[in-house]
Amino acid sequence: MNTNIYPIATSIRHCRGNAVNEVSVLIGGKAGDGIGNAGVLIAQMLNHLGYYVYLYNDYPSLIRGGHNFAVIRAADRQVSVHQDRVDFLLALDQRTVDLHHDASPSCTMIMNADLVSSSLAGQGISLRAILAAEQAPGIMGNSAVIGAFAKTAGIPWETVATVFHSHVPKGLELNLRVARRAYDQVQTVRVIEPIDRPALPLLTGNEAISLGLVKAGMSAYVSYPMTPSSGILHFLAEHADRLGVTVIHPENEIAVMLMALGFSYGGRRVAIGTSGGGFCLMTEGVSLAGQAELPIVIVVSQRTGPSTGLPTYTGQADLRFVLHAGQGEFPRFVVAPADANQAYYWSAVAMNLAWKYQIPAFILSDKTLSEGQYSLEPENISAVMAEEPLLWDRTLPYSRYRDQPEGISPLAFPGEKDAIVKVNSYAHDEVGITTEDAGMVNLMAKKRMSKWGALSFAVMDYPGVYVGGKTDAPTALLCWGSVRGACEEVAVALGLRLVQPVVLRPFPAAQMTGACFGVSRMIAVEENADGQLAALTRGHGIEVHGAILKYDGRPFTPGELLVKVEEMMAR
Amino acid sequence: MTRTLVTDAGNTWCPGCGNFTLQHTLKTVLADMEAAGKSLDDIVLVAGIGCHAKIADYTNINSFYALHGRAIPVATGIKLANPRLTVICCVGDGDTYAEGLDHLIFAAKRNIDITLIVHDNRVYGLTTGQYTPTSPLGFHGKSTPQGTNEYPINPMELMLASGATYVARGYTKKMALLQQLIAGGIAHKGFAFIDVLQICATFFNQTAQYNQQEYELAEHDPTSFNAACAKAREWDYNSDAPIALGLLYKRERQTFDERFSVPVMTQEVREQSIREVLEQHR
After folding, report:
1. CB distance A246–B260 less than 8 Å?
2. What does pTM read for this prediction?
3. Count: domains in chain B
4. Could you tell me the end-to-end alpha-carbon distance of chain A, in angstroms, rounded to an integer?
5. Mean pLDDT, 10 residues at a time, over chain B (282 residues)?
6. B9/A434 touch (CB, cutoff 8 Å), yes or no
7. What is the number of H-type helices and E-type strands within chain A?
8. Three-state SS string across B127-146, please?
9. Could you say which residues from 36 to 75 on chain A have a Cβ atom under 8 Å away from some Cβ of chain B?
10. Are the beta carbons of A267 and B81 separated by less than 8 Å?
11. CATH code for the part of the protein at A202-382
């Protein structure tokens, strides 16, 4: 028996001097087999062995049938992307073997012997027989596979039991018996050694966004379900009482946006979430937020477009849309976190900035970030606090749009004594009454636009650009959002610089200039067909020399990206 | 009175516009409320976009001058944000029966405690005369010079079907009744819907027809849903049948806003709650 952790099949090809300790597990089956839940349990077992974990869920837009798979990657350092090549392949059906074995010829396999007929090496268990012996329903087949995996990987039964106790919501005892039966049927063949490190909270990007918003004082969340943003709605609805959030699911996205602006006017810190199609319906309200100067946080989680596109797959094609959505001109804040840790922090910052400047603030996510699971660093929890906006001090009669420095008018909310709070979608005067007077229109436009300068200045206090890899290398990979996971690993492997602007509007020009100092070759890596960040960056005078683009809905993996980067560098 | 209820904004409604009656009526209702001990600071007026909506500029109370068709979701958000507030929503017929119809139906369905006053002049005034969802069949407007090819909807019937708990119809030439209906709607706990037949002096002056058709409800039992439906169906917004004015229907039902509490949390409690949730994810 091999008691060492396996020579890492999953680490990047040509990994130069970066010996790492990591393991990847793929579990696949039909939609309805509970692949998503099984993935979470496996991720938690590896978490409890002391590893940092990243989980990728791949599923089609249907409820039953089709092929689902999850890849769990565990390492002794933070990882935020999965690999194509895995160490363990857990196949609930034949299709899983057919689709995934070729990428991982040396993997250790566990197969559902009832459905998989393969000459390939591996251990088979009969889910049918195990379930029959325990009189368990078909959905518990995934517990048998998890049990078999645990034994195969030398994971102590106690770890399995601990994880099941914490993370199996229903039928715990029966699930444990099913898992144990499979555990006892197989041999340990490839041990995943534990690391002496405590387990961390595992969070999806959507959950991290939710908690970051709560940390900054969010007390209302309004949303209409749309993949891949719905996880925020579900999570906050589940924890509404504990987290102190009023969660409303209205009739459509137009109502979402306008209802949220009602909350905002009423003095409640509010956020909304959607994906591209839903955001299309919200844009009239985005412009209203700009004109009426109502703070709001808008989470847009991208999926493959245009239109309905690929509902359950990823994309980065809505950057331009979010940067510009809404008629007229008004300031906005746009941030695109790469992983759950950034998502938590920047969601809180977005809420604070929305209220400080009374503007719409956008959190631009994507399916990979929203639905991937990450290990959250607990010390990040306290890193950011809810900040008070500028409030009316009662010295002057209240004027909602009083022209003050930086364009920030003191806030009061309806119900406050002696404040008549008038907000307006029309061009208005300082009190909030409609006007067509040229001088006043001019004044108010200038007031709104002056917030740009103040916001741009304020944003410089935040880590708006992330630089990684070999930070002084002359060749840099430029990316945004979840793509950073693959880019950073390639940058490390090839000795390149990695530049990820996290803040995208106001564009962190000074920080980007610093981050790109000494770069003679900049390669953009984006999951869209048009190089939207490349164009934005060029627009600010920073040259981008090439772009590696992908737009099939599947996220870049490091192995795949490395080949493409090498090809481009050889040119 | 602690303040004048009219702002300095110059009034731009046409002479003879039914909006004047509505504004005056609302002012009277607000003054009465204040006299009865209600603070005007706790009242919010939400308006859509259209001639009706200028009432937001003209009335000296908290206001949210929203978007065409979108006053209701805004009002819903305000009421949920702070249930202590009295939220009055002035909307137009094109505004709420066309652009914002989905919100109207859901407000009734939820029984959110707001009062909706529909300035139903059955024509788009601000865009200079096109048909609306309550214009009669064959209405000659700028977008339908040959006359419309569709029947109007009957908003009274629609609201009864959608679950509204206060359904009334007023008329701008019957001010005393209108005042009573609006005051009753504000006092009603739940979604109060008041369709106000309002003449448009410039584009659709129906004064003669309304004066001929209207009658005030008497001996009508507003607690009877069937009786309300019968009265609602009497006139379909197209025919020359009698038009019942008054309170058609009223019932008590738990309101949407009553089902939510307003969370109050300190930074410390919030952080502790986050840690507890994180612990479940470990």
Report:
1. yes
2. 0.96
3. 1
4. 46
5. 90 95 98 97 98 98 98 98 98 97 98 98 94 97 96 98 98 98 98 97 95 97 98 98 98 97 91 95 95
6. yes
7. 19, 21
8. CCCECCCCCCCCCCCCCCCC
9. 47
10. yes
11. 3.40.50.970
